[in-house]
Specification:
A hairpin with a 2-residue loop joins strand 1 and strand 2. Helix 30 runs parallel beside helix 32. The protein is of the alpha+beta class and 1042 residues long. Helix content is 45%, strand content 14%. The protein contains 38 helices and 26 strands. The relative contact order is 0.09.
Amino acid sequence: MATSGEETLEAQTEPPICGLKRTSSSLKRTSDQSSLVTATNSIVNPPEFDPDLAHTLSASYVCTFLGTNISNGLSNTEAARRLQQDGQNKIEGDKGVSLWTIFMRQIANSLTAILAVTAGISYFIHDFVEGSVIAAVIAFNIVVGFVQDLKAEKKLQALYSLSAPTCKVIRDGQTETVPAADIVKGDLVALSVGDICPADLRLANGINLSADEALLTGESVPVQKHPERVLNEGDLALGDRSNIAYSATIITRGRGVGIVTSTGMGTKVGQIASDLRAPSAEQLEEESKTGLSRLWCKLKNRVKFLLGLNDTPLKTSLNKFALLLFVFAAILAITVFSVNLWNLDGPVLLYGIVVAVAVVPESLNAVIIVSSAIGVKKMAEGNVIVRVLSSLEAVGGVTHIASDKTGTLTEGKMIVQKVWLSDKSDCKVTNVTDPHNPTSLTTTWGRKHPPSGEKSAENGEETSNALSTVARAFLDTVALCNSSSVTENSDGTWKTVGDPTEVALQVFARHLNFDKERLISDRNADLVAEYPFDSSIKRMSVIYGAESETEVTSYTKGAIETLLPLLDITEENKKEIIDMADTFADQGLRVLCVARRVATRDQLATREEAETQLEFLGLAGLRDPPRPESLGAVRQCKVAGTTVTMLTGDHIKTASTIAREVGILENGETPTNNPKVIMEARSFDVMCNEEVDALPQLPLVIARCNPRTKVRFVDAVHRRGGFCVMTGDGVNDSPALKKANIGIAMGKNGSDVAKEAADMLLCDDNFASIVVAVKEGRRLFDNVQKFLLHLLVSNIAQVILLLIALAFKDSHDMSVFPLSPIEILWANLITSSPLAIGLGIEEATLDVMSRPPHDLKVGIFTKELIIDKFVYGTSIGALCLATFASVTYGMEGKEGLGTDCNEDFNDTCNVAFRARAATYATLTCLLIVTAFEAKHFMRSLFNMYPGEKYSVLKAFTKNKVLLWGAVAGVCLLFPIIYAPVVNRVVFKHQGITWEWGLVAAAVVIYVATVEMWKALKRRFKPSTLKRCGTSGTSETSASSVV
């Protein structure tokens, strides 16, 4: 039988879990409670029962409260009545996300609404070409977003898989198998190894009972259960309630019987499911209102949803900006109508709409979706799967990462960390790349007797000394007194079976060539007797000996407090062992004592004889080690201005030790000298929100966490104006994953529930991959600014050009378009979009993880971006206007603009059409140049990669998407201008000749203007240049910091 009781043994070195003083929250007991139960198993005048306090009552008292019999259970009649009354033992899950909901996500943004209005007006005035183009843009935006969300969205039904399909119950004194959905409060449930606990149980009895609660409490090893205990504090962490078995946990050892205290949504797992489906703040606000106030609140929330004003920070900023553009567009249209004295005939109305269309960046949504999709692909290459597309751009602005410990910052597997032997030699295990692979360990022996081939800690030199006698005996014991197995597969991988603690001991022994099977074979040893782990005495022993020999050896391991009295040593030696065990405990290690006894078979005939007069061999310190990458990842987060907090269900000593090792805490920080930074969940939970907000900083380590503690922490971050990422792998992490701004779940070892609650998944369960996610989010944010600059510069230039060009009148005193509607849409959609997408996939700057998170209050529209877009836009608008005026007055003067040249070509429109073509060519060329200038807000186009040869050439050629987008824009320019029919009928312009000189002059002037502006910024803001770094590939990746 596999023994895993050592988890409890090691826990003895931890500080006390709870005191002996009963809290006022405990249930009040009465002296005559036994009289409440009748012979028919029904309860008379039942007192109020709180399942959350069942651990503070004995099993018999719980039976009293629940009206059941501790031996015979409920009657079948009573069970049927309660099932009818309380309903089935099921977790109520969501029914999946509807296609309609996913569709509404795509249209719920301001830009889509504005484009829809614009398309509608275009159709209304019979401008079907323009209306159809805008409608196509809307459809493209919706389809791309819908497909992406549909691929990522899954049903949140994982909690169903956690429920046991059947279970064994005791009713009317008989054990029977029933569907788990049919058990009720008061049922007696029989548990054995491998069973999934069907409900929350107050254990009534058990033998060597342990349960794996990792997915619920975060404990890294199975938890030993003690049904006989009555705990004294009502607010104990879930992991400390050793007399309770929780729904969905797995029995790993032993057997027992428990009384059902909660079923369905009343269980801890059910409460988590409820938290996942908790109403949003908007829904709670609506429910708190009545009458007209509630109606107004509903209307306000629906409008905010449709306009995308409650989305991620970036999308909310863009949607607000789109609304601002809409208002601006309306003002411009009114301006056009006013100039024309509100004579709203066809041409005037069309011109007003053209000006309004020029304001709107039609391709913005498409560019964001495409850039995000490319970012999703890059994230997948970095082992991060994005489930919710909007989370990609949001993750770059995180200020706090609240991380689970077990399986996230740590391996989630036990290893032997330190060994101290009775001859005072010691061994340290380092560089563990795979806790299950004996060849992946590095052992360093100190003081004396290092094994052959290992290095001494004292001189670091190779030695040929063999293992000491004590070391060999120690390794014999941990290998033989062990029920686990460690085997190598044919492909070179390793397979382990058994309790995590025993596996760690077996791996350690195997690393030093003490393989259990080989030891038995070489010595012709037989298993004489095996005394499995017993929770009452907290130790395990086995006896091996050759059949031909009279002497045999008893190998024992167990808790120090139980083995110490059995050791054949002096009191002075016992004190030394206790001191060393305390040292191990202070380092967050779980401690095992290892001993043996050599005697004749007759002298070891019983367990009591086999476990007395033991020879002390040494201590083993085990733990769940940090991932090798975690330290570098945490350091990267600190450099990036992101605070990492550990929220764990483990004990505070273990948690603080791991936190120091991964860099969350500084060396020397302990719960004693810094209690506000390192605290237990109960200390955090009793603080009101005002007290939490008054702390100088939020705790960096919170131990013994329950799910609600994690949710409270996320709320505290939000109240401080922070943007929080929660990482985790267990069911217990799910509510916080849902509550956090971005939830990141472990994809390999994470529970299905955690995955469904998360926005992102880490395929390799590597905390360092979070650095990849944050880096990619920041890269996307930077690139959004770049392509926003490019897109908005085009809009500003067009608005300036179209407004001032109102002064250019034809012979009928009608304003002449300097650009036709199709030219504007072509420039905004066809020319600018590929360039914007190219900017959207620009590589991260070198300093992307060396600067603080961007200010979420400021958002995407920083002061620098706003100023730059007006400088660039004004320059392009002025140069385009100069080109239009030069052609107009350089050929025939004002009279050359003809008659009705806004609609069709006629003999009088030669000058107007040539001027329009030259203006369009100027706008196209300047937009292409702007795309390359926008690669960096500060650096010169001619020195984009300082110190590198041919820097200017690299600026044009490194980003292939941007390069080919520019080439396509130039190549398409010529057929658009010169192709018959297309030029005059569709684009309302015609071929040009000498006007190309004006275009070239405009490009030279524009480049000079932008370079002068950047030079001024570098002169007066040199610190910004240092902060911005270069546009090269960042080498500071997750892999380079570990």
